[in-house]
Specification:
Elements: H1 3-9, H2 25-28, H3 36-49, E1 57-63, E2 67-72, H4 79-86, H5 103-111, E3 112-120, E4 126-133, H6 134-139, E5 151-154, E6 162-170, H7 179-189, H8 191-195, E7 199-203, E8 206-207, E9 221-226, E10 232-239, E11 250-255, E12 258-264, E13 277-282, H9 300-312, H10 314-328, H11 331-364, H12 385-400, E14 412-416, E15 419-428, E16 437-440, E17 447-453, H13 457-461, H14 465-484, H15 489-510
Parallel strand pairs: 1-7, 11-13, 15-17
Antiparallel strand pairs: 1-2, 2-6, 3-4, 3-6, 4-5, 7-8, 9-10, 10-13, 11-12, 14-15, 16-17
Helix pairs in contact: 3-5, 11-14, 11-15, 14-15
Length: 511
C-alpha cells in the first residue's frame, strides 16, 4: 500500500488513541542487567547532580542483607522535583549525569520490589515521601493512568535537606560481605569527584577512595586533544610497573566525571604486548547509552575520538611493546637461546656435509656466483627496514661490550662450499604485519642474522621463548641449505625438521 497516495486521495478522519505505557513498564525498566554497583552508581549520579555549590557532598550508602540505602546531603527535591523524578523518561537536566530520566527508577526496581524516596529542600517547611510496591503497582494494571500517592510531612528541622532512597524486598543476593567490591568500584567510577574533594562517598561508614596504579618511573603523562565543534578530549596515561595477563589494562573512560567503561582498550591494540598501558580518558561530548554502561560506538563523535587518540597513543603503544619485549627476554632466555643456536648450527652443518658432492656439482653450474654461494639464500625479497634493525643490533652489541673484561665469545657458524658464515640471532620489533621471523645478509658479509619478530601475535602467547626462537633459527637454516643447493621451499621445510629433530635430541640429553 502507498501510504502517501491513500492519505492524499481518499477521505481520512482522525480519532484519538491512548498510548500510555502499560504499568508493567515501571518494574520492567529495572530488567537491564545492572550489577549491584552499577545500580548504586545510578543513584549516586543523581546525588552528584544535586550537590550544593562550594559545599562537600556526602553520600552515605548502607548495604545489608535485607535492604540497600543511599542517602545524600544535596539540595533535595520539592514537590514538583520529586514528581518529575518519578516519571519514567522525564528529565530536564542538561550536561549532568542523570540526563535520561530513567536511572533512579531502573536502579531501584533492579535491586528490589519495594523502594522509598524521601526528600526535602532547605527552604521548605515540608518533606515528601513516595513508596513503591511492585505487587500493589501491578495489581492496578487495569488502570489507564500512572497516578500514585505522595506523602507530605512537616519537617521537624527546618534546615534539613537532601534525599534518601531505601530499597527493600531485594531480588538478588546482597550482603555486607560485598562492601569491599562496592567501595572499590565506586572509588574508581567517581574518582574525578573524589580526587577533587567535591564529593565523599561512604559504604557502611568506610570512605571510598580512587585506586592509584603503580606506574613506572615515567609516571603520568597528561594530554589534551581538540575535537570538532570546539570539543576537547583529555586525560592521562602511563605504564604499569608490571603488565597484566588478566586484561586489567587500558583506560577508564569518563563522561562528565562519571566512569562509563573500565579497562577499555580504546584506541590501543588489545594485545599482551601493551598490557602495561593504563590511564583515563574524558570525553564529555561523546554520547552514551541510556544505561550509561557503554559509549555509542557508531556515533560520529566516538569514531572521531578513536581516530584522534590512536594518533596520540602511537608512541605510548610503541614504548609499551618495547618494555614488554625487554622484560620478557632476560638472561636466562638469552642463555638458553644460545644453546639452541649452537646445537642447531651443528645439526645444519651435518646436513650440509651429507650433501657434499651434490652441492659441489651444483656450484659449478653457477658461473657468476662462485665468490658468494650464499647470494641466493634469501629466498624472498627482504624488507629494507632490516638494515635499520641490523644497525640498531650492532650498536646495542657494541654498547654492551666491556673492554675491561676478557670474555669468551662463542661463535656459531656453518661452512658452505668452504666459506664460513657466522650465525647470529636476536629478538626485534619488525612490525605486526610481518612474518614471525626474518633473515638479514649482505653480499660479501660473513654474518647471517636471524631475527624473531616480537610483534608477531604468537610471540606474546608463547611460554618458551628459547624454543620459539629455535623454530625460527632452524627454519632459516633450512632455507639456507635448500637455497644453496637450488632446492624448493618444501625441501627447506624438510631440512628444518631434520635440524630441529637432531638439535632437540641433543638438548634432551643435555637436560
Amino acid at each position: 500500500m502507498d501510504v502517501s497516495s491513500i492519505l492524499k486521495h481518499t477521505e481520512v478522519k482522525t480519532e484519538a488513541i491512548n498510548i500510555t505505557p502499560d504499568r508493567s513498564m515501571l518494574p520492567k525498566s529495572g530488567k537491564v542487567g545492572y550489577t549491584l554497583t552499577q545500580a548504586i552508581a545510578e543513584l549516586v549520579d543523581n546525588a552528584i547532580d544535586a550537590r550544593i555549590p562550594e559545599e562537600i557532598l556526602e553520600i552515605k550508602i548502607v548495604i545489608q542483607n535485607d535492604f540497600v540505602k543511599v542517602e545524600d546531603n544535596g539540595t533535595g527535591m520539592n514537590r514538583k522535583d520529586i514528581e518529575s523524578a518519578l516519571i519514567l523518561g522525564r528529565s530536564s537536566k542538561v550536561n549532568l549525569l542523570g540526563e535520561f530520566g530513567i536511572g533512579m527508577k531502573a536502579a531501584c526496581t533492579s535491586l528490589g520490589k519495594r523502594f522509598t524516596v524521601m526528600s526535602t529542600k532547605k527552604d521548605l517547611k515540608e518533606g515528601y515521601v513516595y513508596q513503591y510496591a511492585e505487587e500493589k503497582w501491578l495489581a492496578e494494571a487495569n488502570k489507564s493512568d500512572w497516578i500514585d500517592a505522595l506523602k507530605i510531612y512537616e519537617k521537624p528541622n527546618p534546615n534539613e535537606h537532601g534525599t534518601s532512597i531505601e530499597i527493600e524486598q531485594l531480588t538478588r543476593s546482597i550482603n555486607k560481605a560485598r562492601k569491599p567490591e562496592v567501595l572499590k568500584d565506586l572509588g574508581n567510577r567517581f574518582s574525578p569527584f573524589l580526587s577533587s574533594n567535591q564529593v565523599k562517598i561512604y559504604v557502611n561508614q568506610d570512605e571510598c577512595a580512587p585506586e592509584d596504579p603503580e606506574l613506572n618511573k615515567d609516571g603520568k603523562h597528561f594530554f589534551a586533544v581538540d575535537a570538532s565543534n570546539g570539543n576537547k578530549i583529555n586525560g592521562w596515561y602511563g605504564l604499569l610497573m608490571h603488565g597484566s595477563n588478566k586484561g586489567l589494562y587500558g583506560f577508564n573512560t569518563f563522561r562528565r566525571g562519571r566512569m562509563i567503561t573500565t579497562y577499555d582498550k580504546f584506541a590501543i591494540p588489545s594485545h599482551p604486548t601493551v598490557s602495561r598501558i593504563i590511564g583515563e580518558i574524558h570525553m564529555d561530548h561523546v554520547p552514551v547509552s541510556s544505561s550509561k554502561r557503554g559509549w555509542e560506538t557508531e556515533s560520529y563523535e566516538y569514531k572521531e575520538a578513536e581516530k584522534l587518540l590512536e594518533k596520540e597513543f602511537k608512541e605510548l603503544v610503541a614504548k609499551a611493546r618495547l618494555t614488554s619485549m625487554e622484560e620478557k627476554i632476560d638472561k636466562n632466555v638469552k642463555d638458553k637461546t644460545e644453546v639452541w643456536k649452537q646445537e642447531l648450527a651443528k645439526a645444519a652443518q651435518k646436513e650440509i656435509n651429507k650433501l657434499g658432492d651434490k652441492m659441489q656439482t651444483s656450484i659449478k653450474k653457477r658461473s657468476k656466483n662462485l665468490e658468494d654461494p650464499i647470494s641466493g639464500i634469501i629466498i624472498e625479497k627482504r624488507d629494507p627496514a632490516l638494515d635499520q634493525v641490523h644497525n640498531e643490533a650492532k650498536i646495542k652489541e657494541e654498547h654492551t661490550r666491556d673492554p675491561k673484561k676478557r670474555q669468551a665469545i662463542v661463535s656459531h657458524y656453518i661452512n658452505i662450499f668452504g666459506k664460513r658464515y657466522i650465525i647470529k640471532h636476536d629478538f626485534a620489533s619488525l612490525g605486526i604485519e610481518k612474518g614471525w621471523k626474518d633473515v638479514y645478509h649482505k653480499e660479501g658479509d660473513p654474518t647471517i642474522e636471524i631475527y624473531t619478530n616480537q610483534d608477531f601475535p604468537a610471540y606474546a602467547t608463547t611460554s618458551d621463548l628459547p624454543f620459539y626462537a629455535a623454530l625460527h633459527i632452524s627454519e632459516a637454516l633450512g632455507e639456507i641449505i635448500a637455497s644453496s643447493n637450488e632446492e624448493s621451499l618444501d625441501k627447506a621445510n624438510e631440512y628444518k625438521e631434520k635440524i630441529l629433530r637432531d638439535a632437540a635430541q641433543i638438548m634432551d640429553e643435555f637436560k
